[in-house]
């Protein structure tokens, strides 16, 4: 299996001091930065665009930036984020008219590519493109907001995606996004995930360093 990675979602950070917030969680041991892009069209909320991604790069942040596009359509945003220094770009298949074309675009631009599955999106969409993917992002809440509760049936979905990947002999990253916390992270790992997006369970905690340590303690147990 792949090494466990915690990707803190900056959606729950203090935007007025974003650079410092990101440096704090990276210093605390998190390896990636999860970057939630919302457009008030594909999801009923609005966050930030590629300029904020460039700003983090210009601020000296070198850690992988894991862009999660909750926008429709996706292709123009893929181009902008690749230029802005994204490391990986994931999008929702429902938001692209030509999924294969969007996947190819991400790869052509030199980024890792992921597909995102909403809670009710069947995993069958992966069957036609898993060979092309570096990552599958499984939503364990409905996209749009931080701080929601983990939907328990996501565990079974993670298992089914891991089984599908194994069937294809593909050691892709399986990332889980929504309601991940120190109490459920072990179960999520045991179901087959290796990448853990955490928003409120890190940024909304009094002692973030300790919150990150507790999560890694569970993962490495
Ligand atoms: C939801 C976002 C998530 C969210 C996770 O649409 O994709 O990344 O910020 O936040 P928590 O961990 O608070 O559920
Ligand atoms: Zn996300």
Topology:
Layout: E1 5-8, H1 18-27, E2 33-38, H2 50-58, E3 65-70, H3 75-83, E4 88-91, H4 99-108, E5 112-117, E6 135-139, H5 154-167, E7 173-177, H6 185-190, E8 195-198, H7 200-203, H8 208-219
Parallel strand pairs: 1-8, 2-3, 3-4, 4-5, 5-6, 6-7, 7-8
The structure holds D-xylitol-5-phosphate and zinc ion (ZN).
Can you describe this structure?
The protein is of the alpha/beta class. It has one domain: Aldolase class I (TIM Barrel), CATH 3.20.20. It is 33% helix and 18% strand. It contains eight helices and eight strands; from the N terminus they run βαβαβαβαββαβαβαα. Strands 1-8-7-6-5-4-3-2 form an eight-stranded parallel beta sheet. Helix 3 links the parallel strand 3 and strand 4. D-xylitol-5-phosphate binds next to strand 2, strand 8 and helix 7.
Number of helices: 8
Q: Enumerate the spans where pLDDT stays under 50 for 5 or more consecutive residues.
A: none
Q: What's the CATH architecture?
A: Alpha-Beta Barrel
What does the overall shape look like?
A: globular
Number of domains: 1
By CATH's scheme, which homologous superfamily applies? Aldolase class I
CATH class category name: Alpha Beta
How many E strands?
8
SSE order, as H and E?
A: EHEHEHEHEEHEHEHH
Counting helices, strands and paired strands, the structural category is alpha/beta
Across the major sheet, the strand order is 1-8-7-6-5-4-3-2
* Cα Rg: 16 Å
Helix content: 25-40%
Topology-level CATH name: TIM Barrel
Cofactor: Co(2+); a divalent metal cation; Mn(2+); Zn(2+)
Keywords: Carbohydrate metabolism, Isomerase, Metal-binding
Protein name: Ribulose-phosphate 3-epimerase
EC number: 5.1.3.1
